[in-house]
Fold this protein.
Amino acid sequence: MELYSYFRSSASYRVRIALAIKGLPYDYKPVHLVKNEQMAESYAAVSASRLVPLLRDGDAVLTQSMAIIEYLDETHPSPPLLPGTPAERARIRALAQDIACEIHPLNNLRVLRYLVRDLKLGEDDKNRWYRHWVETGLVVVERQLAAQPATYCHGDTPTLADCVLVPQIFNAQRLNCSTDHVPQLMRVFGALMKLDAFEQSRPEHCPDAE
């Protein structure tokens, strides 16, 4: 397998965690988003969307982090990242989407660049935007975790939801977002970071880390 990734990309980070949980080896292909390497014609030949992550597995070329993770779960089902009944799997997907679809799109690099370059927001206003959507979005996840407490997001083994949660918390901490109001979420985060798969996937352990 080949994973096209950027060390600070939270979407790429999700896939790195899933690969580590599954114990799957891969070649790391760095794509430096800040330097706009994703816009190079050489990468466009690989990725129509010019985004990361991208996973190449034989003839399969896969994009979108959660689709990649579900592919990995179907092709390498042990340990499962979507365990349980249909209702339980729906809850896991919903928790993941509360982050990946409701928080992350408002704060990815393309949006932040647009706020500064096109809308002429200053650095302080840009950071206020980031912190607002992260801090309010995490409250939604906190309420769900508090309603059904478990070791991790859902149950006693890591799932798709945990693969999505950890990168969002890393970004929140890097941008000085408050997390005091989400104690259940931070308890789960602390438990996850004691696991080897989550520790070894940290951004600073990537080949392209700066």
Notes: Residues 9 and 79 are 24 Å apart (CA to CA).
